[in-house]
From TrEMBL:
Pfam families given in the database record: SRP54, SRP54_N
Lineage: Bacteria, Pseudomonadati, Pseudomonadota, Gammaproteobacteria, Lysobacterales
Function, in words: Involved in targeting and insertion of nascent membrane proteins into the cytoplasmic membrane. Acts as a receptor for the complex formed by the signal recognition particle (SRP) and the ribosome-nascent chain (RNC). Interaction with SRP-RNC leads to the transfer of the RNC complex to the Sec translocase for insertion into the membrane, the hydrolysis of GTP by both Ffh and FtsY, and the dissociation of the SRP-FtsY complex into the individual components.
PROSITE patterns reported for this sequence: SRP54
Subunit structure: Part of the signal recognition particle protein translocation system, which is composed of SRP and FtsY. SRP is a ribonucleoprotein composed of Ffh and a 4.5S RNA molecule.
Catalytic activity: GTP + H2O = GDP + phosphate + H(+)
Protein name: Signal recognition particle receptor FtsY
Amino acid sequence: MFNFGKKKPAPPPAPAKKEAAAGPQGFSPEDLARAFDAHQEEKAAREAARAEARAAYAQPVAKSALARGFANLFTRNAKLDENLLDEIETALITADVGVAATTRIVDDLRERMNAREFPDVPALVRALRGELMALLAPVAKPLRIDPEAKPFVLLTVGVNGVGKTTTIGKLAHRFQNEGRGLMLAAGDTFRAAAVEQLKVWGERNGVPVVAQGQNADPASVAYDALQSAKSRGTEILICDTAGRLHTQAGLMSELGKIKRVLGKIDPRAPHETLMVIDGTTGQNALNQLRQFNQAAKVTGLVVTKLDGTAKGGVLFALAREFAIPIRFVGLGERLEDLREFDPEAFVDVLLPETLAS
Ligand SMILES: Nc1nc2c(ncn2[C@@H]2O[C@H](COP(=O)(O)OP(=O)(O)OP(=O)(O)O)[C@@H](O)[C@H]2O)c(=O)[nH]1
Ligand SMILES: [Mg+2]
């Protein structure tokens, strides 16, 4: 033991006693009890978070075509046969899951059914839930703000009216709640109203907005904003861009220019290129993402308007085809309706485990 001075009291005898009581790995019963309590607390916190997420997803997702299709299928007395597989296939295809993802799911279920793996329909439902989860698992990667990046630059892109600017407002609200310093760049210089929309929002919420007015070069706005955010030591910069059709080659290459210009100040910027996709779009979302990814290397997705007439299946099609992380989903118009994407909560609402039992 370290004994620095004679005046210090002698070390208490307790540790020796504790060691004597320790188990073979050196853990005392008290250590084990504490570890058990911590584990229980963690588990309870995880379960509470899951229940909270499920509640947020419940109302919007339950009315999607996919959830209703599954409910129709499994609440009547379905039989475990080829006909049931056909009906599952139809439910998936008509809800925008897409041919590739649907084929994978149904072929897998057929193989397992033929191998007599399912004693009853609830067993098949459990397997189907597993298939749905497996498709989404690779894209369940929440956005992490790299603390080394000062600022962490988020560039939002997407076609017209999908919800880019409102998503920026919701993200800003989320980051502010986390106590992070923010700045916005009004990179949609196409419409005068767009610059105003962001400026008004910024003023109301005490977030600085860098703008240059209508028809300014969006790359120049982004450059100015990044310089300003850097000199102020701002933590996060979010750049808005004008909506553009994925088929407009000139406008698509403008996105590449914005990225290159940002990269001149910080070679890693933008740290996240977030494409916003309207969840009601259907299979055309795949074409959109293909083109935007080619022009601007998309690193994350936000799927909005899942509370509207979205069929719910497009997330599976996107996940299967691109494996690009789905960071957030839009479940309504309120600020708190932008939720981190939670595949478990999503699948729990689409196809509850208890549906067929
Ligand atoms: N119901 C619902 N509406 C949403 C959601 N996200 C966005 N919206 C609405 O979609 C509309 C368009 O939103 P904007 O944010 O202006 O879309 P944008 O992509 O910036 O549009 P442009 O700049 O014109 O390309 C607004 O009326 C939003 O309130 C959502 O998750 N749910
Ligand atoms: Mg906008």
